[in-house]
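User: Structure with LLP, tokens only please.
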Amino acid sequence: MDFTTLAKKYKTPLYVYDFDAITQKFETLKNAFKARKSLICYAVKANSNLSVLKHMSQLGAGCDCVSIGEVKRALYAGIPKYKIIFSGVGKQDSEIKEALQKDILMLNLESEEEMQRVASIAQELGVKARISIRVNPNIDAKTHPYISTGLHENKFGVDLQSAKKMYLQAKNSPLLDPVGIHFHIGSQITELKPFADATKVLADLVRNLQSLDINIKFFDVGGGIGIRYKDEDTISTYDYAQAIFDSLSGLDVTLTCEPGRYLVGNSGYFLTSILYEKNNGHKRFVIVDGAMNDLIRPSLYGAYHEVQLLGERDGQTSKADIVGPICESGDFFAKDVELLSTKHDDILLIKSAGAYGFSMSSNYNTRGRAAEVAYSGGKDWLIRERESFEDMIAKERDLL
Ligand code: LLP
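Assistant:
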């Protein structure tokens, strides 16, 4: 891919997604699961661009959604309704209603109270709601605390005892059809054991439920497969699948998973142009036209993203902080990286920006969101226009 040409053609800041790389990731995972029935439901939150979702639908993926907005995006992009899961710890009544009307695969429930609301809304609509329950197995995913979700101290899911109680209630309700079970213990997980342990805990619960004549059809192992940003040891998809299969042996369930980052993270790039360099005598700063409103991961989690200066040149490197124009010291992409000297309009490539990049972007400092481009088979397409000033003020009212 010629990033310099793309940067010149579409201007910066710019996101570029390699759709062929996404295909490859999807196929690798699907292949690892081939010994069982499986459904890969892409976690829309990682990158919800409609063209990305359309690509997922062409690959045969379903979607894991956490708002009715995401459900609508998935449907709009052509994901079949019977492959859409709606998760989330705080669904509104209107969202539950719409999801039931749209007849998606299942609602993934996170509390007893939520289950009661779903039942009463199902009654109002005269339908039977297909549900799954998110079980919190109290397992440490050993990842960043902000993206760890499988411990009792986290707000997600219900404990084993409550889950069992909920399944019994659901079984006895004419309004609920308990078809699935689910866990999601965190994101950017680079060890196999937490996945294996959580699968085992839930598989035992499924066996227990079977003895109570509750037959779970979808066993959802969530998302969370870590990727390499720097030098992390990642889990092989083969080992991941095998560990899950081991615990599921003897169970006739469709293995469902909800990868976000794994599918799109390394397939995306963020391009930003250099505006200025300055050295205050203590430190060298390289100031670029992208900022934390475009890609917030370094500011929010201290996340590492590899940075590469495009174009051939000679010279000595020195340490620099790469920073954006926003009025916050937290507005940086990298700190103390070795970089050659730069000049105005040089392009920086920020890697592994396909997941939680654009989807977490904002208009902070009244900065229009970046354009997005898809790349496949040597061709490129604009898949989202750069936001204009008019776009940003479109919803505001003039009170004067
Ligand atoms: N399923 C559920 C229920 C989730 O909450 C998530 C992510 C996923 C699937 C997908 O997880 P993945 O495969 O992408 O790890 N903004 C953070 C990540 C937040 C993840 C939230 N939940 C970041 O930039 O690292």
